[in-house]
TrEMBL record:
One Pfam family here: DUF924
Organism: Roseicella aquatilis
Signal peptide coordinates: none
Domain of life: Bacteria
InterPro entries attached to this UniProt entry: DUF924, TPR-like_helical_dom_sf
Name under which the protein is recorded: DUF924 domain-containing protein
Record lineage: Bacteria, Pseudomonadati, Pseudomonadota, Alphaproteobacteria, Acetobacterales
Length: 191
């Protein structure tokens, strides 16, 4: 059975700069590696099979990766990419607000406990996301222009403006509005 350490070794192992480039950009080879090694974990994780992992900082982080990041890589452009989001937020909320596991992790790892809030279409979660990412302001990687703090604010602005992420409309079978279409036609729109 896969352990949290194996997931964290895969996600954070090796040259961090090279992995960072793969984390947030489509990469078929990276997606295939996730599918081959961990694809069978996403549905059981969504159903609670690995919730016991959340008792430790590393376990909570690994579980958030399986629930929040892996589905986005494995199911790009489909509703399945977001199917575990509610569970990821519940795990992240307990890890960050109740257990304070983020205090035991380095800033780059903390980001992946905070991303479930950034991925939410609820304004309260967006406010929490910005507050958490702002806590990384002393880390130059996250505070740099285009860093994770900037992305947290950009996600929040989209939710404030539209109440949802328009780039998900097609995957979720939602009709878009003319204002959303105009936004999505701009360079760099969507995430």
């Amino acid at each position: 059975m896969t352990a949290p350490a194996e997931i964290l070794g895969f996600w954070f192992g090796g040259d961090l700069a090279a992995w960072q480039a793969r984390w947030f950009r489509p990469d078929p080879a990276f997606d295939a590696a996730i599918r081959d090694r961990f694809g069978a974990l996403t549905v059981p994780a969504r159903e609670g099979a690995f919730d016991a992992w959340a008792a430790t900082p590393e376990g909570a982080l690994a579980l958030c990766l399986v629930l929040d990041q892996f589905p986005r890589n494995l199911h790009r452009g489909t509703a399945a990419a977001f199917a575990s989001d509610a569970h990821a937020r519940a795990v992240a909320r307990a890890a960050v607000l109740r257990d304070r596991h983020d205090l035991a992790l380095p800033p780059t790892a903390c980001c992946f406990l905070y991303l479930p809030f950034e991925h939410s279409e609820a304004m309260a979660d967006q406010d929490l996301s910005v507050a958490l990412f702002e806590g990384l302001r002393d880390d130059p990687v996250h505070a740099a222009p285009g860093g994770s703090i900037d992305y947290a604010w950009r996600h929040r602005a989209v939710i404030r403006r539209f109440g949802r992420f328009p780039h998900r409309n097609a995957a979720l079978g939602r009709a878009g509005t003319p204002e959303e279409a105009a936004y999505l036609a701009q360079p760099g729109a969507g995430f």
